[in-house]
Amino acid sequence: MEPVIICISLFACIFGICFLFFQTRNKERLALIEHDKDASLFKFRKDRASPVWPVILLNLSLILMGVGFGFLIGNLFETYTILNSDLVYVACCFFTPGAFLFLGFYLTRKLKL
């Protein structure tokens, strides 16, 4: 019975999020039309000022490097300290990708896109 409840609640959450997204988008567009404003901001432009792919690739590569570095640091902590090995690996594999993403935030600010 529990898997059925979980599946139904997951579907209801996804449906609710999509429904609210499309409903508010429709209301925003109708409000713009009602006030005689330009609704071209909702159109997808291919000539964006800055492409998003370099930022995505930079952050993805930093996450993967952070996970690898986390395993390395976790192995070093497990070998040279008396800490619990399970806790060390989990902590390092969460901390280092976060630190690398923080570094990625500053690197993307410096990119000339």
UniProtKB/TrEMBL annotation:
Residue ranges annotated for the DUF6249 domain, each copy included: 5-107
UniProt superkingdom: Bacteria
Segments crossing the lipid bilayer: 6-22, 52-75, 87-107
UniProt keyword Cell wall biogenesis/degradation present: no
Key word Lyase present: no
InterPro entries: DUF6249
Keywords of the record: Membrane, Transmembrane, Transmembrane helix
Name assigned to this protein: DUF6249 domain-containing protein
Species of the source: Zunongwangia atlantica 22II14-10F7
